[in-house]
Amino acid sequence: MQLEIDLTGRRVVVAGDARPSRRIVARYRAAGAEVDLRPSAAACTATVLDGAVLAVVVDPPSGRAGQRPTAARADQAFNALQERCRRSGILLTRETGATDTGAVTLIGGGPGALGLLTLDAVAALREADVVLYDRLAPTDALAQLAPAAELVDVGKLPGHHRVPQAGINELLVSHALAGRHVVRFKGGDPFVFGRGSEELAACLAAQVPCRVVPGVSSAISVPAAAGIPVTHRGVSAMFTVVSGHAPLTEEEHLHLAGLGGTIVVLMGVSTLPQLVAGLARAGMRPEMPVAVVERGYSTSQRTTAGTLSTIVTAAGAARCQSPAVLVIGEVVRVGLELSGGAAQLARLTESLAS
Ligand code: SAH
User: Distance between CA 47 and CA 278 in Å, rounded?
Assistant: First the structure.
């Protein structure tokens, strides 16, 4: 059960050692509370509790019990405090403090919809001291999701590397070595064209603990947002996810066209003409349906559909722009039929006939 209490301007007494309590104190301060940190539950006398709405007892991080009064004594002090709080009508909670060593959590933030964040992602953001985020991650709600964190935009607009990759790696490592819990917040899944593995390698090389929280990749979810299934029984039993960052080789065009399954292309708007020409040279039918799905999950999401022979003209006329996911395959027709995209389907059929 999660209780929502407005803590703005309210007194919150936190009982625990300063370092392990640091993040908890920061979180309550970020929620607007006036935090009074006391060294232990026993130190929270009736006078200290006066005027407080909430008391929080911070237990030492696991593995530290040896340096602390025994767990039984801590429980005793907690029980006594519980009684004082009960008498004064003060809420009481117990939390475990964080270790002093920093760590990095690489999070896949999904394609941009808040609802497509994982529970693990939300939990890690809540504990973050600093968040390094990208342009395509769902950033609108970051301030609420990571209330105690410093938010740093390291996003890269295409062609404008705001913070170079080596700089991002260094930032991750240096924040973590300073004892912070760092969240690297990326669009989609961190290991799908996200350079997540390079960041993981940089952390491991610096002996910084690093955990990866996978995300919902745009490769599957953005077609889905447009109603297009990447597989469909009897139509396509495979999908290949390709980067269109640079034009493909002739051999790659041949292999892709020969697979006979769905082709999903990320970062492919600017290389669409080369891809289409290459697939045509490799023998793909000119009637093969193609869709360009721009800005999935935003209010300006748009699908432009055509065929291998018409899509370059259609995308040019519609001024299609990045970010977009391209889908090449018969599943595009299935998707348009399913989502009742009658007008687009008619246009597609027209282009098939011409
Ligand atoms: N790691 C990400 C992909 C990073 S590459 C993932 O798993 O989704 C960036 C590309 O992803 C963009 O150029 C675009 O092709 C695609 N993309 C990401 N989010 C998108 C969105 N909301 N709408 C359309 N395309 C998106």
Answer: 78
Tell me which of 218, 222, 298 to substitute to probe ligand 1's pocket, judged by most ligand atoms within 8 Å of the beta carbon: 218
CB of 292 closer than 6 angstroms to any ligand 1 atom: no
Instruction: Collapse the DSSP code of 74 into the 3-class scheme (helix H, G, I; strand E, B; otherwise coil) and give the result.
Output: helix
Answer yes or no: is 6 within a domain.
no
Helix (H/G/I), strand (E/B), else coil: 228: coil
Does 267 participate in catalysis according to the annotation?
yes
Q: What is the pLDDT of residues 95-137, one digit of tens each?
A: 988 766 799 999 999 999 999 999 999 999 999 999 999 877 7
Query: Domain range spanning residue 88?
Result: 11-96
Residue ending a domain, choose from 47, 66, 96: 96
**Nearest-angstrom CA–CA distance, 22 and 74:** 19
3 within a domain of the structure (yes/no): no
Out of 134, 186, 189, 288, the active site residue is 134
Give residue-wise pLDDT tens across range 271-313.
Answer: 999 999 999 999 999 999 999 999 999 999 999 999 999 999 9
Q: Are residues 225 and 344 both part of a single domain?
A: yes
